Amino acid sequence: HHGEVTDLAQECARLKQALVVKTAFVKALEERESRVMREKKLLEQQLHAVSTKHKELSDRAYEIASDAEETQLHEAQVLEGCMGHVADLEAQIAQLERSRKEAELAHAQELELALSCARLAQTAAVERPEPATQLLQDRVTGLEQENARLKEQLAGGTADALPPSLSAPQQLVALQREHVQMEGAMQQLLTVNTRLTERVQELQEEALGTAGHEQKLLKDLEDVRSERARLMECLKKADFLQAKEGAVADARLRADIEDARRRLREAEEEAHATKQELFVAQQSLAWVQGENSSLRAGHGALTEEATVLRGRLQSAQGQVQTLKELVEQYTAGMDTSDPERLMLGSVARSIAQALDHKELAAASPGPRRLQAARRSRSAPRQPPNSTPNSARSVASSGYGTSPARPRVVGLSRDTSSSGRYWAPDRPYMGVELRAENDGYGNKENVVVVDAVAPNTPADRAGLQVEDVLERWNGRSLNGLAVFERMLHSCIKREVVTLDILRGGVRVQTKVVLGIIKRSPSSSRKNVL
């Protein structure tokens, strides 16, 4: 009983140590959860900042759209004004064209009139170099003939029958007056010809000025058209730049929003996983505390039983001592000459020796009791809601991504349980293994693949039946226990490198460990 009490005390100390480790692990999980919450809060702040930025960009886009509308309206007004100015210029050009045509027609008429006058003057100068003198001579000749005719009439006695007429001096005066009038008309004609020539020159100069003004108007029209084309090109470029800037800003904003949402989802998933791990850790801690309480109760009961046994042992030792004293007294006063008394003395000494052996046996637990205590101590303990069959069907361990969890599980129970504590999520490979001898006297130290489950990590990695697993991440595999321990020390979704002997050829493959969501119900022992 003393050995069992010592073992129980050691077990209690180990459980206390595991409880301390569990408490530290729970505290670490709480700190991690608080850190995740802080990160989540930071992500929410970033999301709020992104939303604010999106709102600012939307306002800026609205302002840009408003400015673009105002610019388009202003450009439309400018374009409308330009079009009106162009229409006015075209009307002025048409009016100038009509004026030019009218001026050309008047100029042509004046030229024709001047040419006619010049021809008349030339004809008069060529045909009648002295029109007044010739006319005067003709009139004088006519007057002389008339005078001769009158004289003949007078001589013939018909003077009373002729109408009265002017005398010769009067007719001469009239002819001189007509000559003067004809010279004045000729002078007026020359004056009109001079004026017409000057007007023709003025019209020619005006036509030249009209052509220059027309060229200027055409140049202004070309400038207006080029300005309009430039404004249209600037408007198209502004629309393109605005559309491009809006598309780039929208793409950047969508990327920021998607990144923030992704990070928020990751934080929520991590927080959910942390909560699950914390729940599992709390359950494990409660189970460890229950085991600790039961061990404490058992330790108290064993202590009481040991106290009772010590009392009984002390009373038995007193009785033995009294019996030994009686035997010594009997042997001391015994007559050695009597054979019967001598035999009784030897019997009494044998009884005393036997009592000494019983006392030693009572004081020491003995090898059998030590073996029984070790067997009871090495018996696997199961957590709540678990069975040995479900615990031995698939060998895996770990709660998540923390490398400290397999160590905590190993401390919270006996290490010889070989993965019999199961978590809700744990890695697995999906193979059934068997152990064989290596042919050098070592028993069951060769790990051989006996079966590969379909659609499992082992199947996807290309493992085959009768493959000999030699190394796990460079470490030798000397038996199924080593393989299970390696698997128990992994985290979920870890990539493992296996060295395989297949048909006498060594190959290497990588296996991504899967995750099993519940305890398997298979009864096969070596499915990993």
TrEMBL record:
Residues 387-400 have a biased composition (Polar residues). Gene3D superfamilies: 2.30.42.10. It comes from Eutreptiella gymnastica. The keyword Nucleotide-binding does not apply. This is PDZ domain-containing protein. It holds the Pfam family PDZ_2. Residues 26-160, 250-284 form a coiled coil. Residues 358-417 are annotated as: Disordered. It comes from the Eukaryota. The keyword Coiled coil applies. Residues 408-480 form the PDZ domain. The lineage of its organism: Eukaryota, Discoba, Euglenozoa, Euglenida, Spirocuta. Keywords: Coiled coil.
